[in-house]
């Protein structure tokens, strides 16, 4: 594969790994490095007839490929692997990527994850979108000691009810992003205070997917909003196959809410945004909406998405979360922006998947092995040492003895505001701006003009 980052003389090094191959080789010696990586996937035999030195490190990638989010993740994974191979691989071993389609189904995910660990004998797995899919394969991948770097789901239960509760069994699992929904609720409550300061909005309705990732979200957010002296007249969970929104919008309007915080990962809220704009409902639409992260969303809604916001890891690449954010986004767009199939930008899972593959590379080089069957503890210890500046933000993990063991640590500014889950807003000209937090803002949040 051609180098997708070769868009300028310095861009190809703007977001490379923070622990280089040469430093690893200097520390171990080339011969030792190769020996430590024996046991990787691939063929090869030594003169003594032993296991030999593997030629490749194989990374499995799981995503729903019927969803642009999954396609963006696949492409981002391919970019990460191409970049790593162009810079010497993992300790001089080339990297192979194998992507399997989960079809957003727990049963299908178990089938294809089984193929990765049994037939392909992958050295690590990255990906999965929904928490239900993530948790459905955790028993399987832990049985094979396969490092599992989650890049799309956000339910705290993945770590609290699995990793933290049965550490020896599930220590192979790490959540690279986004921040879990416990912290997402805190982000939204902080954002609510920002909207109160800016617009005088103090009454918020809460409407969410009836799904695993929103369980903690709904409960904690309501408590946090009330603690901040905000009114919450409505909390509603919607079936994930909901397609009609007239009654929901009418209920929010009748309750006098200044804004509706909706949290949709499974529900397509595009029809809701269209009805909201056409009816000029007297409240804002804020929160989390995965479908609205699609780069073509504004065009698909014929502009009715204007003023809608969503949080998203990577902020769609419109602001410098780190020095790597914009270069990675531009590199992706240069390679895939004209592709027939969306998305033309990585979307949030793409940012996190790209970072996760680099995180695994660095950890494998620190550990000196990808032989999880015999050296899982070394790989886990190396992952726990992670302090990586990625395209979506800084990656550090909670420790083994902490409540959110192996989960992504939230990043905070000097005022305690969480910064690694920013909010973007669609504007009248079809552009996307980062409106929160202030440290990453590219434009002020705009209220719909019909609200006065």
Automatic annotation (TrEMBL):
Keyword Signal: yes
Pfam families: Peripla_BP_6
Alphabetical list of CDD domains matching this protein: PBP1_ABC_ligand_binding-like (cd06345)
Limits of the Leucine-binding protein domain: 56-408
SUPFAM superfamilies assigned to the protein according to its UniProt record, in alphabetical order: Periplasmic binding protein-like I
Keywords, ordered alphabetically: Signal
Record protein name field: ABC transporter substrate-binding protein
Source organism: Haloarcula argentinensis
Phylogenetic lineage: Archaea, Methanobacteriati, Methanobacteriota, Stenosarchaea group, Halobacteria
